[in-house]
Amino acid sequence: MELMPVIKRDGFGSKKAQTGVAHALINDITIFAAAYNWWVRSNQTGFVPSSTNVAISAALAVPASFFAAYLGGHLVYQYGMGVGRGSANRAKKAQ
CA-CA distance, 68 to 55, in Å (whole number)? Predict the structure, then answer.
């Protein structure tokens, strides 16, 4: 929500835009990986994961989620981005 104005203003050349795009892409990849993991497990009796599912989750999905969280924190604390900040500013101006 807050990334599109940054991209329109600065293009993909700014570090802020690059970090935001990386954060979004990594989050999308982990969501698709979790959905695939669920889909594969849904056919198993008792919804028990295979050793491949556990290995992929441990080796790829968890570290990717942590890295995406790190990038999200970097966006918030380094660049001041955050969802809903625009509505908070409007409420302050209205007072």
Answer: 19
